[in-house]
């Protein structure tokens, strides 16, 4: 689960700018994040074709006119999709909060509207400062009133939108008031149990306070409604991480050292020093980041200005520095260039992956992202270079990066890239063994390299070793837009062209792809015998509606083939819509089941028809209720691999697939896991 902020400063909102950013709200930050302008596309409703609605550069979430917009927040919905929250000024005078939920195929989930569902309905100007999951497909949204004239914030509200996009029971349209009065810092983080942690302070130099709330917005777990006093000044720079035991860690900089403290409902956790645990040697350490490790210990990383390097330290849950790590912290990389902006994700073995930006001379603005993996004892993980793994070959990165776990002890990174002169969004996957994933383009997958500028990528896992990225586009600086795109585990930017259907009968394989935005006008079809190398076997052109169809008659019965499209995407080649098909010696009516089975992310079903007579494919739950049905007879005779795009929001469980044609019925059991 990605972290969301527990405390976020929103006191420096630059409301005169086109884009308003209330701090790096993807983390629990005390410091402010400057407002920055960036690019826009044209808003369009979801396609009704039933195939993937992801498009190149992402699905547009906002209406065509926004006037101004704030920073976006994204978190996974637990079913392969994501929820994105933001604020914009579409009404012309006030900021209002909105949210949208997309399923794994890029479609709006039922109950969620084009342009976003209202998070709050008031006459005042409000900016979302925090958002995170409710562990049920919906989420919590923390927001504050903003005074555009004096650029200050006051009053804190909480809204809870359900999985269907409506306010949860007990939540009014304007949200619940949590705090009244001027606000210095605010933020929140999901507690993993359907509630949240909430932190705040007033701008009078007071300390940050924090409490834990249940789904109704009431204090829970013994936490006081008025919160505990963390002892951390409002002006400090830092962030939190949950401790896995009903409390949280907090790391902050005193301007000379990095300090970590652990809190429970009664205040400082038992066994921890009252003033916190100093984890760095004296200096001017800045920008501390912290995560919970897989064993509930903590890892904190920071920048040491004396060396311009990233250092890290492991903290035992009991309140001591881990003795296997160097005193004063482990220097993460042996590189010689300056480093900045550390990002952390835990692995499943008590260690962590750390990303940073290497700053290239002479201007120390451009550089490249690196990732390093450290073990639980502070060593560099086996197979990883001591200097870290570079995600780019050239110095073209320009900050605003984000890192999440890939679910397999590796990580997926996103960053803003200026290689083509404009700000574009690129992503890369680094594997657990210390290499860039060979299936991804060598210098990253271009999520959006359109004209204009895109920035502020924020990632959420798709639950299938890939990621959904929310980005901001300000091609039209008077109407900034928010978009969301999906990048699959193999580096495919989803639905440049996605597979619709593949069928096989003796002597021929038929393939059908679809490009929803028409960005793929032509492609090379590549084929491989199972386990072999891909080779080009032909070219295919899209029709006027974005469909690409190809027939391969040079096939051998009983042989299994893999097919994919190779598409030039700028200087890189993107590989799309891969599918595995076995050519039968003869066709017999039947159903194989889901592929894979059990299925976790995208779901395909494999079945065979003997004719083009009307046929119906159904998915039933254990109670016998039909949850999905579609006509498939028009696919014709042969074996078929058909994506079931509308099943992404189904809960985990056992299901029955039923295929009916000409009075015959066959069934197969299927399992979906989340």
Strand content: over 45%
Under CATH, the homologous superfamily of the largest domain reads YVTN repeat-like/Quinoprotein amine dehydrogenase
CATH topology of the largest domain: Methylamine Dehydrogenase, Chain H
Number of strands: 50
User: What is the count of helical runs?
Assistant: 0
From the alpha carbons, calculate the radius of gyration and give it in angstroms: 25 Å
Strand numbers in spatial order across the main sheet: 41-38-37-48-45-44
* Annotated CATH architecture of the largest domain: 7 Propeller
Q: Any low-confidence stretches, pLDDT <50, length ≥5?
A: 1-52
Q: Structural class of the secondary structure composition?
A: mainly beta
When the domains are counted, the total is: 3
Mind telling me the CATH class of the largest domain? Mainly Beta
What is the approximate shape? Answer: globular
What is the typical, i.e. mean, pLDDT?
84
Terminal CA distance reads 13 Å
How many strands, which pairing sense, and closed or not: the largest β-sheet? 6 strands, antiparallel
The percent range for helix content is under 10%
């Amino acid at each position: 689960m990605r972290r969301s902020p527990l405390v976020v400063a929103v006191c420096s909102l630059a409301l005169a700018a086109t884009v308003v950013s209330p701090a790096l709200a993807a983390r629990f930050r005390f410091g402010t994040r400057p407002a920055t302008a960036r690019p826009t596309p044209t808003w369009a409703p979801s396609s009704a074709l039933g195939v993937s609605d992801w498009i190149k550069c992402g699905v547009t979430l906002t209406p065509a006119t926004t006037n101004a917009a704030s920073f976006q927040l994204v978190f996974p919905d637990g079913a392969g999709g994501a929820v994105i929250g933001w604020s914009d000024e579409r009404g012309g005078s006030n900021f209002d909060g909105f949210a949208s939920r997309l399923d794994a195929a890029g479609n709006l989930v039922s109950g969620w509207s084009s342009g976003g569902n209202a998070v709050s309905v008031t006459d005042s100007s409000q900016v979302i400062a925090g958002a995170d999951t409710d562990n049920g497909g919906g989420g919590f949204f923390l927001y504050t009133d903003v005074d555009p004239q004096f650029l200050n914030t006051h009053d804190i509200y909480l809204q809870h939108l359900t999985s269907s996009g409506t306010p949860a029971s007990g939540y009014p349209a304007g949200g619940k008031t949590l705090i009244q009065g001027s606000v210095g810092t605010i933020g929140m983080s999901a507690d993993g149990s359907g509630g949240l942690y909430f932190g705040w302070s007033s701008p009078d130099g007071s300390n940050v306070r924090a409490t834990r709330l249940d789904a109704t917005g009431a204090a829970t777990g013994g936490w006081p409604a008025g919160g505990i006093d963390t002892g951390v000044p409002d002006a400090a720079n830092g962030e939190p991480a949950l401790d896995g035991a009903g409390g949280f860690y907090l790391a902050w900089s005193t301007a000379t050292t990095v300090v970590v403290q652990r809190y429970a409902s009664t205040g400082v956790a038992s066994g921890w020093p009252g003033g916190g645990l100093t984890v760095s040697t004296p200096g001017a350490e800045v920008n501390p980041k912290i995560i919970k490790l897989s064993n509930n210990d903590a890892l904190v990383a920071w920048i040491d200005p004396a060396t311009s390097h990233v250092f890290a330290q492991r903290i035992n849950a009991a309140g001591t520095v881990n003795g296997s790590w160097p005193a004063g912290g482990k220097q993460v990389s042996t590189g010689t260039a300056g480093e900045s902006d550390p990002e952390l994700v835990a692995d499943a073995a008590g260690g962590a992956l750390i990303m940073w930006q290497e700053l290239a001379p002479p201007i120390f603005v451009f550089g490249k992202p690196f990732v390093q993996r450290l073990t639980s004892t502070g060593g560099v993980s086996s197979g990883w270079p001591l200097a870290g793994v570079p995600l780019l070959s050239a110095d073209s990165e320009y900050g605003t990066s984000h890192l999440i776990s890939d679910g397999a002890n590796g990580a997926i990174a996103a960053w803003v890239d200026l290689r083509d002169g404009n700000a574009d969004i690129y992503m890369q996957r680094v594997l657990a063994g210390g290499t860039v994933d060979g299936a991804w383009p060598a210098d990253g997958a271009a999520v959006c390299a359109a004209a204009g500028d895109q920035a502020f990528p924020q990632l959420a896992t798709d639950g299938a070793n890939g990621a959904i990225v929310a980005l901001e586009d300000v091609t039209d600086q008077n109407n900034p837009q928010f978009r969301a795109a999906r990048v699959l585990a193999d580096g495919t930017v989803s639905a440049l062209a996605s597979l619709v259907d593949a069928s096989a009968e003796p002597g021929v394989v038929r393939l059908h792809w679809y490009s929803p935005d028409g960005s793929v006008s032509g492609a090379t079809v590549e084929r491989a015998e199972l386990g072999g190398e891909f080779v080009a076997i032909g070219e295919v052109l899209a029709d006027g509606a974005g469909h690409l169809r190809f027939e391969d008659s040079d096939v051998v019965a009983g042989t299994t083939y893999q097919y994919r499209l190779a598409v030039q995407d700028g200087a890189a080649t993107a590989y799309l819509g891969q599918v595995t098909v076995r050519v039968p010696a003869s066709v017999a009516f039947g159903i194989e089941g889901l592929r894979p089975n059990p299925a976790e992310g995208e779901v395909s079903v494999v079945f065979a028809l003997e004719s083009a007579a009307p046929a119906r494919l159904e998915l039933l739950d254990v109670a016998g209720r039909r949850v999905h049905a579609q006509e498939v007879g028009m696919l014709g005779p042969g074996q078929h691999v058909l994506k079931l795009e509308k099943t992404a929001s189904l809960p985990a469980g056992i299901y029955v697939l039923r295929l009916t044609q000409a009075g015959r019925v066959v069934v197969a059991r299927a399992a979906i896991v989340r």
